Amino acid sequence: MTMAIHPLHTLGFEPIAFQPAKQPRSLANHSLENLGFEPATVTVKTHGEPALPAAPQPWSLHPATVIQPVGAMEAASGRTIVQPTDNPAINQALATDAMPTYKARLAALLQNIPGATLAATRDAKKPARLAEKIAGQGQPAETVSDYGAAQIAVDSPQAKDAVVATVKRHFPVLRQQDHFAFGDPAYRYRSFSLQVQMPNHASEELQIVPREVLEANQQEHHDYKKARNAELAGRTADQAIAAARALNDAAMDRFNRRNGLPQTSGQNAIVKGAVVKGSRVRLADGSLARVVYVDPNMRIARVRTEDGRNVTVRHKDLGQGRR
């Protein structure tokens, strides 16, 4: 399962208004109970985990905790391990303690990038939603990306590229996912996401989001919540999903118009004429896709389908025109 990229991540964020903490909070102040979890007995793995630096470790408070090999695949779920332990309370404590440094570093980096602002942060995930992810959606605690998270709003694709390059120079990046132009397959929420590691081994989620998309989702996120809750309950959610997609598509079209870019949604979005990056096309099987790369000499294009597939096709095999 890939990193979640959808309007959910706007929930629980607070406006940026913070002072860098003088001293991080002691992890000794955290407990499983005050984070909404019960202590669990776990068998410690004995194979191949890389040793972490010799320093006082908060998980020593809970001997049953298993230190995890960050970057490896979690066997049962097939998801990437991005947190240092399998204990959700400890992962949350680590992420929360790293947030003052994380926010301060992001704010400093953005000072030199026009058109990019630190728009929202979340120091801790709501315990009920975290438990829902782990128990209800099959995401082991060590694979949850957003114990701590931040969102950067950008005014242009150029600002997005500058933020990505700068973050990669100043943080270890565990993984990345690019849904900036076309959105995720489920809800078409646009963002470029990075999972960055902090000095205490926690990792934090970073979303770089078109400003119009972020603003729309901060104002109206109920359609996504309705869809998510219906799916968790085993009910169909077609109407709510369609509403969430329409919200995200309309916001991205406003972003694109302001930047002089082609539309990426709507009845008139499938272009006529030359195949260009960003245009909407129809494949030979009838499915719709967006052009992400064009080679004019080889007469081929790479496209991303609405269900998230990347396909290389010849120009002559692309049908263009109105839907």
Keywords:
323 residues, SH3 type barrels, 27% helix, Beta Polymerase, domain 2, disordered N terminus, alpha+beta
Describe how the helices and strands are arranged.
Elements (H helix, E strand, L loop, with lengths): L13 E2 L72 H23 L5 E7 L4 H10 L12 E6 L2 H14 L2 E6 L13 E6 L5 E8 H9 L2 H11 L5 H21 L21 E3 L5 E8 L4 E6 L4 E5 L9
Parallel strand pairs: 3-6
Antiparallel strand pairs: 1-2, 2-3, 4-5, 5-6, 7-8, 8-9, 9-10
Helix pairs in contact: 4-6, 5-6
Task: Give your account of this protein's structure.
With 323 residues, the protein is α+β, with helices and mostly antiparallel strands. It folds into 2 domains: 7-35 and 59-228, Beta Polymerase, domain 2, CATH 3.30.460.10; 268-323, SH3 type barrels, CATH 2.30.30.140. Helices cover 27% and strands 18% of the residues. It has helices at residues 88-110, 127-136, 157-170, 211-219, 222-232, 238-258, and strands spanning 14-15, 116-122, 149-154, 173-178, 192-197, 203-210, 280-282, 288-295, 300-305, 310-314. The strands form 2 sheets. A 6-stranded mixed sheet has the order 1-2-3-6-5-4. Strand 8 and strand 9 form a beta hairpin. It is globular and about 60 Å long. The two termini are 31 Å apart. Mean pLDDT is 77; it is low at 1-12, 17-61 and 267-272.
Low-pLDDT segments: 1-12, 17-61, 267-272
SS-based class: alpha+beta
CATH class of the largest domain: Alpha Beta
Domains, number:
2
Strand content: 15-25%
The helicity comes to 25-40%
CATH topology of the largest domain: Beta Polymerase, domain 2
CATH superfamily membership of the largest domain? Beta Polymerase, domain 2
How would you spell out the order of helices and strands? Answer: EHEHEHEEEHHHEEEE
Largest sheet: 6 strands, mixed
Spatially, the strands of the biggest sheet line up as 1-2-3-6-5-4
The pLDDT mean sits at 77
